[in-house]
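A quick aside before the break. I want you to see a complete sequence-to-structure record at least once, exactly as it would be stored in a machine-readable document. Don't worry about memorizing anything.
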Amino acid sequence: MKYSVGIVTYVKRFEKFFKPLILEIKKQRPEIEIIVCVNGEHKEKFNENYRQDILNFLSELDNSFVCMHPQFRSLSKLWNTCLINATNDNMLLLNDDVRLDTGFFDELETHINNSSCDYFKINDSWSHTFLNRKLVGELHWFDERLLGVGGEDNDFEWRFFNKFKYAFPSKKIKNIFNFESKESVLTNQRKTHANYSQFNTEFINLKYRPKKNGQMHGLWFSAEQVMDTPNMNPCESFFWANKENK
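That is the input. The structure line, written in tokens, reads:
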């Protein structure tokens, strides 16, 4: 199965986390396609030195592509962008503060090849997730009305459970480690629990409401959805169906 790698990143993690991660990916899989979404910061001018450094760094690596966002955009938006811009339907979506050790891709591909499922969290975490974009599109993508960071995984898992009646799967895979960096991307934004958006929390509380008797939905509490999720990218399925007919 062919797949791409998608990574969302920003200025504060460039040297410490992002560069070592990219170099390790290319060491283990030199030809793999990498889609990088670079986020700006809220109410701040984009760092010109960073812009030049990350473009220069990635330009030296084959099959590596960059989407630049001069102003801060949501994690949902950037995840969707990674999936849309890839040439493959399947993607390994990684946080930028992840470490991959030798043998990770061998084990990942063993799991993929031995399973009929082409979507799963790795080690119960959305910091490293394998996705099929047609599945994501079927569920109307990650909700871009979550304008910050936080809750996009819970929201997606709830909608997945509601449609398919089973929890979004997870697989145990060795040789991957999430540093859970404390450098917050939410510069000049209202925050809750240090690294998550207060705006997202407020929006989730509008979109869902708790219910007394219900089943757990992946990472989340028993709830019912009271606000629909519109299709965030309604023309993508048309592109998939017709791109070879141009």
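Two observations worth writing down. The chain has a mean pLDDT of 92. Residues 14-28 form the longest helix (15 residues). We'll return to this after the break.
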